[in-house]
Amino acid sequence: MKRVAVLGATGSVGAGTLEVIRRHPARFRAAVLTANRSWEALDALALDRDPDFVVLGTPPPDDFAPRWGGEWRFGADALAEAAGLSGIDIVLNAIVGFAGLDATLAALGAGKRLALANKESLVAGGDLVMRALRRGGGELLPVDSEHSAVHQCLAGRAVSEVARVTLTASGGPFREWPADRLATVTPADALRHPTWSMGAKITIDSATLANKALEVIEAQTLFDLPYERIEVVVHPTSIVHSLVEFRDGSSLAQLGRPSMEIPILWALGYPDRLDDQRQEAGFDPVRDGPLEFEPVREDDFPLFRAGVAAGRAGGEFPVAFNAANEIAVEMFLSGDVGFRELADVVLRTLERFSSRAIESVEDARRVDARARTIARGPYGESKSGDAE
Ligand code: NAD
Ligand code: MG
What we know:
By secondary structure, this protein is α/β, with parallel strands linked by helices. The protein is built from 14 helices and eleven strands. The strands form two sheets. The chain has a seven-stranded parallel sheet, with helices on both faces. A four-stranded mixed sheet has the order 9-8-10-11, with helices on one face. Helix 2 links the parallel strand 2 (about 30-35) and strand 3 (about 55). Magnesium ion binds near residues 144, 145 and 215.
């Protein structure tokens, strides 16, 4: 029986994880559940699952009156601590954004299996995360579907045998929109993803293709692959989750109808292939075909190119890209900037950074905080004044 800490339990990946755990009661138990602010949702989950304790990332609000009588802990430190506890076997990090970095480092530092959905911690934490993995002696299993696909296709083979990895992208809701119409995109349009149902931040990232840039950096870091050997192709139905071409000319792909429960099950159960138990039909070549692919419209979705360039340039750039993108998404969702200005916010922020190496978590935190302030810039400072 593996005891799982589900960080970000009230979110979309968190919900998928709790479903997978529910289907495998003899193998997994949700021992810790966390959320950021939504204590009512966390309370409902705790009543249902009766974990050892729960953690809210923020202090208890004034109206805090939980029905679940178990132990509540509060604050960002309690959150990261929960990831390193001795009674925990697997940490599933489904927190959104840079806020997930401390938990990633704590889990790996304590030698846990980290099932990682929080790609932002790999993008912003890069070498720090991989160093924590080596030092702590734990395991890092990707939950992101494309990286789960690559992990499954690699099946432990050396990166030196890989000719290239091709990550697939759905292309988002605007895949077929002409460039001039993109200026009219509203948050409601962008929140309507064609193939995946996900949290708001990653849904916007999928619409701008910033998500795919984050995933290229994630793949580079996870698999230690040079950027030259990572490609992206648009695949509108999200059936082929990614491909690995080996040096001998063979390409392997992992396929499945889009559901995060498949990569979650792999990350929790690896190296075993556990029973899916969803009663869903698997991939059917006739019904699910034809499988179509097309190139990324890099000129029309500039955050893709900017993100990959930031990853290649390294140092402060990926940290700043991630932070500025988080702020740009917030500003877009609150109506402060339009869809096309998302990239402007990120690009003008990146200009202020360099490829100076990130040596410590403090460095990463400093760059992250500074990039957020710069990204908010004239919009945020005049409006909310809450820049750090
Ligand atoms: P979501 O918005 O649905 O859920 C986010 C969770 O994180 C919530 O439980 C929330 O309470 C918690 N949280 C938010 N801010 C926090 C903070 N500052 N401190 C602590 N906890 C905080 O997001 P999601 O769609 O489930 O995505 C979670 C992560 O997984 C993201 O990094 C995303 O990129 C990645 N991911 C998601 C999917 C998907 O299908 N949703 C697929 C691949 C990767
Ligand atoms: Mg993905």
